[in-house]
């Protein structure tokens, strides 16, 4: 039996998180071995929001109040991770999971000590992104000004400081404060 068919049968043909029956597909819960026990059956809205955390709508996930009690470990793991991402510690603390399931759920959470780089608008920056400078900046030691509107492609993240990124402007590698940048 295929993974999709097995998940459809297990879920009764509805999203295992919100109960919708529109645009259903399998979503593997990392780390996964590809089995149905480590995947969930979700609608297109839940799937797209889980895969793009920047677009998550907390109101859509009010359904987690029910799905967090699922007897299916993969559903409980996803519920735990989403509730943690929304800062709903009150609901996370109410959940009961076996130790191995809790370890699986914790393995997918972001590292709390990891640096988060954000531009002037609060958008999270990743290595390789393209940003635009929002203010004319004097570049020390070079004798030129990085003009407002200049695109800085393929940025690098400074390892010990979330307020700086590295990038090339006029062929020169420089450090730029993130408060003077906008992700493009």
UniProtKB/TrEMBL annotation:
Residues 6-51 form the PhnA protein N-terminal proteobacterial domain. InterPro entries: PhnaA_N_proteobac, YjdM_C. Gene3D superfamilies: SH3 Domains. SUPFAM superfamilies: Prokaryotic SH3-related domain. It comes from the Bacteria. This is PhnA protein.
């Amino acid at each position: 039996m295929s993974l999709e068919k097995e998940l459809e049968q297990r879920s009764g043909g509805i999203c295992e998180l919100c109960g919708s029956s529109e645009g259903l597909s399998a979503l593997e819960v990392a780390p996964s071995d590809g089995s149905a026990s480590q995947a969930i059956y979700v609608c297109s809205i839940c799937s797209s929001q889980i895969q793009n955390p920047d677009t998550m709508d907390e109101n859509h996930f009010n359904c987690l109040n029910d799905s967090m009690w699922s007897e299916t470990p993969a559903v409980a793991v996803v519920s735990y991770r989403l509730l943690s991402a929304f800062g709903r510690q009150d609901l996370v603390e109410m959940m009961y999971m076996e130790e191995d399931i809790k370890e699986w759920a914790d393995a997918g959470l972001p590292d709390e000590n990891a640096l988060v780089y954000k531009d002037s608008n609060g958008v999270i920056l990743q290595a390789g992104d393209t940003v635009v400078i929002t203010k004319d900046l004097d570049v020390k030691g070079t004798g030129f000004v990085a003009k407002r509107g200049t695109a800085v492609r393929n940025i690098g993240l400074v390892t010990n400081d979330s307020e700086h990124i590295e990038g090339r402007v006029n062929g020169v590698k420089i450090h730029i404060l993130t408060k003077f940048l906008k992700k493009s």
